[in-house]
Design goal:
5-stranded antiparallel β-sheet; alpha+beta; globular
Length: 662
């Protein structure tokens, strides 16, 4: 059995206490997340963001807990902090260590003669939170006061969202407590010691969410607490409080000790399944991080039931926490790193079959909005990544039986692309795939503010055609029949996309303004895929330009700094951020394709390839501890931005790590 994965931040300073973050997911899309000191800094910071069936989706059910130690002399020692107003002084705080043990957060506090540890977990496949307190050392009687603060709202609603006639009513039955508000399902509270919940209404006004303010959103809101638990703590005796939206019979099915042991063993099994991959601490962290993104789509209950009735297990991938849902593109790109690399091939099988059910008009969904039952199909590349993901599954598992279901769909997809399908996606007379519709973003560079599509890329985009050629060649292999269009695509691609003057590939040809010569990383996919569409003699030239102009220690820039549209930082309000999203901003996931190309050009230079991952390896211990975020600023100090945990960032790091060390 693998050793425990322990990440420590010793003696957290003021900056890490406020801006360091942690994340725990529950396998349904729900999560718990916060700052190290407990102060909510985002509207998404919550101890229980439950994944509820539509129309709710992910819903904040427990925002914050004010927990403190009550000493013998009645002094109160806070175990978490709250920020009211913009001015904030970090008062003397007894937290001396934050660590992750197998991905689960643990806080250690020391005050005078007292040593206490707090731990937190979500039960897998449940919307159930366990917060535990263990008194390690104390020379006096100790009590803990545990007060929940609430503002029920869906995940994306602002912190000042108003609930009609907002009141939190507590209903008690013996030692079971239910808190109800408006049309939301009840939040159930329970402590196994059966201590009484004292009714004592409190309202905290002007809670300040700093990150929301920085991003131009509503940043001040109120929290309400209907009461508190007051409980004695005994040395070496763990006290657990439970918050859940599950039925009482589910909550009582596991004792806190059983729940903790069950989750620890589940995580150990994940590491064991990954086998020798987990020989390094970095790989073990990434394997555990990968598990956070693999979910059962509990919020789409009808779809889950339909798949189960057909003997299938519905699985998908959350693109990123805390705000993304499951996206077709992200799922297909991440599938190899999250599931096949980690030995969880049965999950890869379920994901492929789940998405096969959603094929419509020759497309898989771009994404599923939170709380909605229907997917959105505005994507030109997700469906082509579906071919790639299926091929990686078949090649690694040797399971060709899956083609019995997938192959008819793949043939139909290709035919509909040739004929023409939604959003202007069709094959032109030169064999290249063209796409584009006014006001719709269809490639992975999909930033949009109102009606403004920041990087429309309408026309023949380089990675779309690399994926199209790859899909045609894969279909040729699977059917055993030649695809004449593949050869035509290959010839046209090399004739049309090569920018001889600068020795790299156009990003778009036949675009709204002709050929787009912006130096972007999308050209990497013309080499990195299983069937490269770019002729071999040009590989090194492309790699050299990307290496020289776009590579950073934490990923690949989305635009050369010499371009007048380049943006060095991703900050400000939504419009400012989206203007920079693909205009220089660094994306870690692109390192995967870069390393693929590097190893094709320099197959024996794995040492250099390994060095490209060093910056991300260091990042595992900063920002959101134990995972990789979405994006970074384009220039030093390469500040982390966007989602705190991103599926394809983790997946491509892990896949690349394995590839380099084979």
């Amino acid at each position: 059995m693998n050793a425990s994965v322990i990440d420590k931040i010793l003696q957290p300073n003021a900056n890490t206490l406020l801006h360091g973050e942690w994340l725990v997911a529950n396998g349904l899309g729900g999560f718990a997340s916060g700052s190290l000191c407990g102060a909510p800094m985002r509207k998404y910071h919550a101890l229980l963001a439950a994944a509820l069936p539509a129309p709710f989706g992910r819903t904040v059910m427990l925002n914050y807990v004010q927990d403190c130690l009550i000493l013998a002399d009645k002094r109160e020692i806070p175990l978490s902090l709250l920020r009211q107003g913009k001015e904030f002084e970090l008062c003397p705080f007894s937290l001396v260590e934050f660590r992750l043990e197998d991905g689960l957060p643990i806080w250690r506090y020391e005050f005078e003669d007292i040593v206490l540890e707090k731990s937190l977990m979500l039960i897998y496949q449940q919307n159930t939170l366990h917060i535990s307190y263990e008194l390690i050392k104390a020379g006096q009687p100790i009590e803990i006061k545990w007060r929940p603060f609430l503002h029920f709202r869906t995940n994306d609603q602002p912190v000042n969202n108003q609930i009609p006639n907002e009141s939190y009513d507590v209903n008690a039955h013996d030692d079971e407590y239910e808190i109800e508000c408006h049309d939301f399902p009840p939040l159930r509270l329970y402590n196994i010691r059966q201590h009484t919940f004292t009714m004592d209404l409190q309202k905290i006004e002007d809670v300040y969410y700093e990150i929301e303010a920085q991003q131009g959103y509503e940043s001040v809101g109120n929290l309400i607490s209907p009461g508190y638990f007051l409980m004695p703590l005994q040395i070496e005796d763990k006290l657990t409080l439970i918050a859940s939206t599950e039925p009482w019979k589910t909550i009582h099915a596991l004792t806190p000790k059983e729940a903790w042991l069950t989750e620890k063993m589940r995580r150990k099994r994940i590491l064991n399944i990954a086998g020798s991959l987990t020989d390094t601490a970095t790989a073990r962290k990434l394997v555990l991080a990968s598990d956070q993104f693999i979910i059962t789509p509990n919020t789409r209950y009808e779809d889950m039931v339909r798949l189960q009735a057909a003997g299938e297990e519905a699985r998908t991938v959350i693109a990123g926490y805390p705000w993304f849902t499951d996206w077709g593109r992200d799922t297909m790109i991440s599938l190899e790193g999250l599931t096949l690399t980690t030995g969880r091939t049965h999950i890869a099988h379920s994901i492929l079959r789940t998405f096969a059910y959603y094929v419509k008009d020759g497309l898989i969904p771009n994404m599923f909005p939170d709380g909605e039952r229907e997917g959105l199909y505005n994507t030109a590349d997700a469906t082509l990544w579906f071919f790639h993901a299926a091929d990686r599954y078949i090649e690694i598992t040797k399971d060709t039986d899956i083609l019995e279901m997938l192959l008819p769909k793949f043939i139909d997809i290709v035919n509909l692309h040739i004929k023409g399908t939604r959003f202007g996606i069709k094959v032109d007379t030169d064999g290249l795939l063209v796409q584009g519709e006014e006001g719709v973003q269809l490639t992975w560079m999909d930033a949009k503010v109102g009606a403004w599509v920041v990087t429309p890329r309408r026309g023949k985009a380089v990675e779309i055609n690399a994926l199209w050629y790859n899909a045609l060649k894969l279909l040729e292999t699977w059917t055993g029949q030649p695809q004449p269009l593949a050869e035509k695509c290959y010839e046209s691609f090399n004739k049309r996309f090569w920018f001889d003057q600068e020795q790299y590939l156009y990003d778009v040809v036949d675009g709204e303004k002709g050929n787009d010569s912006a130096l972007r990383p999308n050209q990497l996919f013309a080499i990195s895929l299983k069937h490269p569409v770019l002729e071999r003699s040009r590989w090194k030239a492309v790699l050299d330009r990307v290496h020289k102009d776009l590579l950073t220690p934490v990923g690949i820039r989305t635009l050369s700094s010499s371009n007048p549209d380049f943006r060095a930082t991703y900050d400000g309000d939504l419009r400012s951020r989206d203007a920079a999203y693909h205009q220089g901003t660094v994306w870690p996931w692109l390192l995967g394709a870069f390393i693929d190309v590097w190893l094709k050009v320099y197959p024996n230079d794995t040492k250099e390839a390994s060095g490209f991952l060093k910056g991300l390896e260091d990042h595992l211990n900063t920002n959101c501890i134990g995972t990789i975020g979405e994006i970074f600023d384009a220039c030093e100090p390469y500040r982390a931005r966007g989602c705190i945990a991103q599926a394809w960032s983790v997946a491509e790091f892990l896949r690349s790590l394995v590839k380099i060390n084979i």
